[in-house]
Amino acid sequence: MRTSMFRLIRNGSASRSRDIGRGYSSGAVPERKVAVLGAAGGIGQPLALLMKLNPLVSRLALYDIAGTPGVAADVSHINTRSEVAGYMGEEQLGQALEGSDVVIIPAGVPRKPGMTRDDLFNINAGIVKSLCTAIAKYCPNALVNMISNPVNSTVPIAAEVFKKAGTYDEKKLFGVTTLDVVRAKTFYAGKAKVPVGEVNIPVVGGHAGITILPLFSQATPKANLPDEDINALTKRTQDGGTEVVEAKAGKGSATLSMAYAGALFADACLKGLNGVPDVVECSFVQSNITELPFFASKVKLGKNGVEEVLGLGSLSDFEKRGLENLLPELKASIEKGIKFANQI
């Protein structure tokens, strides 16, 4: 039952490694601790559930400023491998983090109707800075999966905090952009009339609005969609978050699909740590493939985190224009994060 349930997640992974579908006994893989910071929130709760279903996790630490004992008690009753512990309040943050191999950060406030990612910045930036200060102290070697928006700014904030603490390793900090890939695959499959499980599409750039650039010219299976369809699919992928916020009419954001995407990416990180070969996912990482210090592209994951940042490949003229247009906005978001992190 456990393996078949989690296969729903595993089969969605871009890497779809041949090793992962065979299932694991608890003794066949290393012990791995995963901490979820913000585990009582709208993303955190379903993410905690999905990570409890992952057979690669042996210990699951759930942290939030309130509400975590209940979430942990609920999730702990699920008959899967990992042992679950809940931690609440700043005084227990260190315990939650100690010994973690992967730290996932969905903490912060969600988007509401009319709210931009810049609006989110003022609240979430401080939360991220505080949490990353603790990560540098208690688990400096963990892989950090940043979900808290705006990712284009929160990843640079995290990098600056780790640099100040002397613990920064660019191979271990990731902005989770997997939801953009998930959406691009879903929307493309629907328009191209191809099985969604067979679709692969890289999404590059950043994780907000026009900085999200799906490379439909590289999509497989190839469908030769007309330009107007590609334009519409690109716009829908970029506006996917807004689509959900408006559909929920003020009662939430894309929490469930984000939890799914976060679980996918965390699974890929765990597979990389465990030595599974050819694990490739898109992520917002320190990069030199453009003039910007951070950029999302395909990344090969390994035992130390980033094994290789892969290039963009050949782009269509439409994608080249999109790349040119996104760079100034992404640059400003990165600089905003760096400036915030360096304020006293």
From TrEMBL:
Q: Which InterPro entries match?
A: L-lactate/malate_DH, Lactate/malate_DH_C, Lactate/malate_DH_N, Lactate_DH/Glyco_Ohase_4_C, Malate_DH_AS, Malate_DH_type1, NAD(P)-bd_dom_sf
Q: In which compartments does the protein localize?
A: Mitochondrion matrix
This protein's GO cellular component annotations are: mitochondrial matrix
Which residues does the record give as substrate binding sites? Answer: 111, 117, 149, 183
Domain named Lactate/malate dehydrogenase N-terminal is located at 33-175
Catalytic-site annotation from UniProt: 207
SUPFAM superfamilies, sorted: LDH C-terminal domain-like, NAD(P)-binding Rossmann-fold domains
Q: Name one Pfam family in it.
A: Ldh_1_N
Which superkingdom is the protein from? Eukaryota
Q: Which residues bind NAD(+)?
A: 38-44, 64, 124, 147-149, 258
GO BP: any one term: malate metabolic process
All residue ranges annotated as the Lactate/malate dehydrogenase C-terminal domain in the record: 177-340
Q: Which reaction(s) does the protein catalyse, per the Swiss-Prot or TrEMBL entry?
A: (S)-malate + NAD(+) = oxaloacetate + NADH + H(+)
Assigned EC number:
1.1.1.37
UniProt keyword annotations, A-Z: Mitochondrion, NAD, Oxidoreductase, Transit peptide, Tricarboxylic acid cycle
What broad class of enzyme is this? oxidoreductase
Has the keyword Transit peptide been applied to this entry? yes
User: What's a single GO MF annotation on this record?
Assistant: L-malate dehydrogenase (NAD+) activity
Q: Give the family, as the similarity comment puts it.
A: Belongs to the LDH/MDH superfamily. MDH type 1 family.
According to the record's subunit comment, the protein's assembly and interactions are: Homodimer.
What name goes with this protein? Malate dehydrogenase
The scientific name of the source species is Trapa incisa
Lineage, top ranks: Eukaryota, Viridiplantae, Streptophyta, Embryophyta, Tracheophyta
